[in-house]
Design brief:
There is one protein chain. The chain is α/β, with parallel strands linked by helices and about 325 residues long. It has two domains: about 100 residues, Rossmann fold (3-Layer(aba) Sandwich), CATH 3.40.50; about 160 residues, Hypothetical protein af1432, CATH 1.10.3210. About 55% of the residues lie in helices and about 5% in strands. Helix 2 packs parallel to helix 3.
């Protein structure tokens, strides 16, 4: 067995499910199996899996209880947990995310879906660990190595952004364009270099939470149903959960978290108002709307830059910061 391969723990009390998952994953990964919640914790104490496929309905301890134990322990809280369940109700899925799971897969399994989701979350885990390692180096050698390490950090962040956008060809390049728009606006507002850097990284990663949103929702050619829209609205929270533990001199996790907040409190996920919203996040919010409206989407053609600017102008002082709106209009008129 190749010990360089990631270790996947399959936690399920159903032999058929175990066999299917083992046969799907054993070519690319090392596999561990536990058939109840107690065995899961014993396995994790002895070994340290890179990812856990966790059934919700298990004897002795259910999947929610096991996940709660893992997330309350600093040594295991960062192990990605994907719930595997036959329960398709949105309430159960939302509870799983609230418990700290990174994803869910519904039964009956499809081998291609299992493989894709496992690969995606192992990639994100590796990138997050790389970011943390790079930031530790940044703190230790900031005086003599700042430029080089920032370049490495930027490259990793670009890779993370591309990982998300690879699932949605219709919005490929969206995060990079939003980051550029937001930085241009910030420069027009004469923000300090460190604030612009924070905006740039937040812009590149502001939609990373969509990695957990089903592709069928992201690519839906018609208006989303209410339940689908409610699932989509959790992506800023998911993104914040992914980014918040990355040590950085810039608060890009908080900025990305707030990019759908609005001055009048009509935004999400926190319903923040006015000064509760970081100024950098207000810039990112305007840039995001401009890019989204002026670009093609599966459910509509591109509306154009004029319509986008009219939208933020119409909501100046209501949803969007007046100073930011003025800077947007000045920037695009000057192009």
């Amino acid at each position: 067995m190749n010990n360089d391969k990631p270790l996947i723990l399959i936690a399920d009390d159903n032999a058929t499910n175990i066999d299917l998952l083992v046969n799907t994953l054993n070519q690319d990964y090392r596999i561990g199996v536990a058939k109840n919640g107690i065995k899961v914790l014993e396995f994790i104490k002895k070994y340290r899996p890179d990812l856990i496929l966790l059934d919700i309905q298990m004897p002795e301890m259910d999947g929610y209880q096991v996940c709660g134990h893992l997330k309350s322990n600093p040594e295991t809280k960062n192990i990605p947990v994907i719930f595997i369940t036959a329960m398709i109700d949105v309430t159960h899925k939302t509870k799983g995310f609230e418990m700290g799971a990174v994803d869910y897969i519904t039964k009956p399994f499809h081998a291609a879906e299992v493989t894709a989701r496992v690969k995606t979350h192992l990639t994100v885990k590796l990138m997050r660990e790389t970011l943390n390692a790079q930031n530790i180096i940044l703190e230790q050698k900031v005086k003599e190595k700042t430029a080089v390490i920032q370049e490495m950090l930027g490259a990793t962040i670009h890779a993370m952004a591309l990982t998300v956008e690879s699932r949605d060809p219709y919005t490929a390049g969206h995060q990079e364009r939003v980051a550029q728009f937001a930085c241009d606006i910030a420069k027009n507002l004469h923000l300090p270099r460190e604030n612009i850097d924070a905006i740039r990284f937040a812009g590149l990663l502001h939609d990373i939470g969509k990695i957990r949103i089903p592709v069928a929702i992201l690519n839906r050619p018609k208006k989303l149903l209410d339940v689908e829209y409610n699932i989509l609205k959790i992506h800023p929270q998911i993104g914040y959960d992914i980014l918040k533990n990355i040590k950085s001199p810039w608060p890009f996790a908080e900025i990305a978290y707030q990019h759908h907040e609005r001055l009048d409190g009509s935004g999400y996920p926190q319903g923040l108002e006015n000064s509760q919203i970081l100024f950098e996040a207000r810039i990112l919010a305007a840039a995001d709307v401009i890019e989204a409206m002026s670009s093609h989407r599966p459910y509509r053609p591109a509306l154009g830059i004029d319509a986008a600017l009219e939208e933020i102008k119409k909501n100046k002082g209501i949803q969007f910061d007046p100073e930011v709106v003025d800077a947007c209009l000045a920037h695009f008129k000057g192009l």
